[in-house]
Amino acid sequence: IEVKDYRQSQRTKPIDLADEVAQKAFDTLAAMLPAQVHASDLNERHFAKEVNKASQLRIVLHLEQPKKHSRLFPCAIEPADVQQKLRQKIKPIDPHPQVVESRAMNGLAWQVH
After folding, report:
1. Torsion over CA of 2, 25, 85 and 19, rounded to 10 degrees?
2. 3-class DSSP state for residue 19?
3. What is the pLDDT along the chain (113 residues), one digit of tens a residue?
4. What is the pLDDT of residues 26-57, one digit of tens each?
5. Which residues contact 88 (CB under 8 A, 6 or more apart)?
6. CA dist., res. 48 & res. 64, Å (int)
7. Cβ-count burial of 1 within 10 angstroms (0-12 exposed, 13-18 middle, 19+ buried)?
8. Are 2 and 60 in contact (CB under 8 A)?
């Protein structure tokens, strides 16, 4: 799960959002095997072991943006575009990544305030 909240300030990173999330997903997964073997904290080691045993992985980007948009630019970041790019980039990890926001959670169980 990656959370991005742009309700107070705009995105300033030059990297594409889908590229950033995909890279974080790959980096996190790449860290799980070494963590299972070398983590000094037993909770971290156990968590990594459980992740490595997973039969399915899901990628979710929770993206919050200002509620009011201008007529000319209805949305600063188009969630459907990010989701399509993510689908292409992380297909080996999750062929159906989700991009959600508090107004459209797609059945996910957390809340944003």
Report:
1. 90
2. helix
3. 999 998 888 888 999 999 999 999 999 999 999 999 999 999 999 999 999 999 999 999 999 988 776 665 557 789 999 999 999 999 999 999 999 998 888 888 887 77
4. 999 999 999 999 999 999 999 999 999 999 99
5. none
6. 29
7. exposed
8. yes
Q: How far apart are CA 64 and CA 77, in angstroms?
A: 10
Q: Tokens for 25?
A: 């997903």
What string of DSSP letters covers 37-59?
HH-SSHHHHHHHHHHHT-S----
Q: In this structure, what is the dihedral angle of CA atoms 61, 65, 69, 75, given to the nearest 10 degrees?
A: -20
Helices and strands (DSSP H and E) totals, the chain: 3, 3
